Amino acid sequence: MAIAAETPGGSLSILSPDFYDYDWTPLSSATIVDDFVLVRWPDGVELKAYKLWLRENAVGVGGVDRATREGLLDPADLDATERIKAARVATSGALEIDWEHEKASVSYHPGWLRHVAEGKHRADAWVPSQQSWTAAEWSAPPTHEAAGFDADRVRTLEPWVDDLLRYGIARLRNLPVDLGTCLRVAETVGAVRDTNFGRTWDVKADIEMAGAADTNSTANTNLRLGPHTDLPTRETPPGFQFLFCYANDAQGGYSTMTDGLAVVRYLEANHAEHFEALTTLHWVFFNRGPGIDHRWSGPFIDLGVAGAPLTLRAFYPVRGFPDMDPVDMPRAYEAMSVFSRLAASDEFQMRYPFEPGDLVGFDNRRILHGRDAFTAGGYRHLRGAYVDHDEIYSFARVANRRAASVAHYRQG
Ligand SMILES: [Fe+2]
Fold first, then answer.
1. Burial class (CB in 10 A: 0-12, 13-18, 19+), 366
2. From ligand 1's centre to the CA of 253, what distance in Å?
3. Distance 316 CA to ligand 1 centre (A)
4. Ligand 1 centroid to 368 CA: how many Å?
5. How far apart are CA 108 and CA 92, in angstroms?
6. Rounded to the nearest whole angstrom, what is the distance from the C-alpha of residue 385 to the centroid of ligand 1?
7. What is the mean predicted confidence (pLDDT) over 183-212?
8. Predicted pLDDT at 215
9. pLDDT > 70? residue 112
10. Ligand 1 centre from 225 Cα, in Å?
């Protein structure tokens, strides 16, 4: 009896270990190779599936729960002595396996196996790959019309989110000019990342105030803000930052944005010694105030692990101490100066004004943001929010999986 196939040989009744719809892609062969099953499709694609992985992903027979589609097997209970007795392709094209200890045979959806063979299960699947840029490619953020946002919030944001992941920055234009817009956009994408600055926060520059004495941040003054990333004081700084413009009649104060990824690649190719110093020597970043003491030690350029986004820790107002041998300090400072000069150069940095109704989103760990000094009187009011990488990636995967599925059914 094939447990997962309620209709013998049927295809639609075979459950996959998740809730996605997979194309039915019949197998051409299934061969046991030691503790693996090598499955093949007619076009030559193949997958080598390990026995315990198959055992874990057996739906409804103790591997994956039918209702939750979550795994049930604690690794401590995995039976390393379990053996695949037989593996074959069912008439439907599904994989069928007879286990030595398990009494029933188990069927596996060939479309689900195929998506693993094609790497569509990986963390970088269903999202656009990153494209680095300089000011020659983009002199202002890639821009998407958003006047219809409140009529269809998700669909309005989908192409914008793809550009956020691709270029690290993208702009929405003509959003409703009310102070709730920033949070509505953020919450449409996912959970908002709260910080000690609140779920949303305001950046106000009243140029007549000459220094804004009651402010707790350089952002709320009329001073220039050099290229930086926010909150390097955290183990994981916020992934994306959204800045919504509510009002702006000030002169100057243009936003500046630099693709840190492009600067990192340039340094790696042209200044290996600075790249090495920036990726290995640590600094302590700190942010103190009544009741808070955030601090983290990390390199200026944190490349992370393979497949994870890089993190630039580039905010001089909260960079406290070199966390390195004194002998390394001169080269650490030199490398950091070179990086920051490149980041502020016309070659790498775009410069553009904010207009009421604009929302610029950017990867806070990849893109360095800043602001020119204001040159004449006026008032500018931005509202910001943070949304972590996980939320943006999830939103994009859902949208792009759905788009692929719609395209498939249209073709079919
Ligand atoms: Fe900032």
1. buried
2. 14
3. 11
4. 9
5. 11
6. 11
7. 86
8. 56
9. yes
10. 8
Q: Let me know the angle formed at the C-alpha of 208 by 206 and 214, rounded to the nearest 5 degrees.
A: 60
Q: Residue 250: what pLDDT?
A: 87
Q: Which CATH code, of 3.10.20.310, 3.90.1150.10, 3.60.15.10, 3.30.2020.30, is assigned to 29-121? A: 3.30.2020.30
| Domain residue extents for the chain | 29-121, 143-399
Cα 322 to ligand 1 centroid, rounded to whole Å: 22
Summarize the confidence of residues 161-181 as an average pLDDT: 97
Range 185-210 average pLDDT:
88
The answer to whether domain 143-399 has CATH 3.60.130.10 is yes
Gap from CA of 324 to ligand 1 centroid (Å): 26
How far is ligand 1, taken at its centre, from the CA of residue 399, in Å?
29
Alpha-carbon distance of 114 to 95, in angstroms, equals 11
Q: What is the Å distance from ligand 1's center to 133 Cα? A: 20
Q: What is the pLDDT of residues 275-308, one digit of tens each?
A: 999 999 999 999 888 889 999 999 999 998 766 7
pLDDT digits over 231-249, tens only?
A: 999 999 999 999 999 999 9
pTM of the model: 0.89
DSSP 310: P
Residue-wise pLDDT for 147-160, tens only, equals: 999 999 999 999 99
Residue with tokens 């609140």: 198
Q: How remote is the CA of residue 363 from the centroid of ligand 1, in Å?
A: 12
Distance CA 343, CA 301 (A): 13
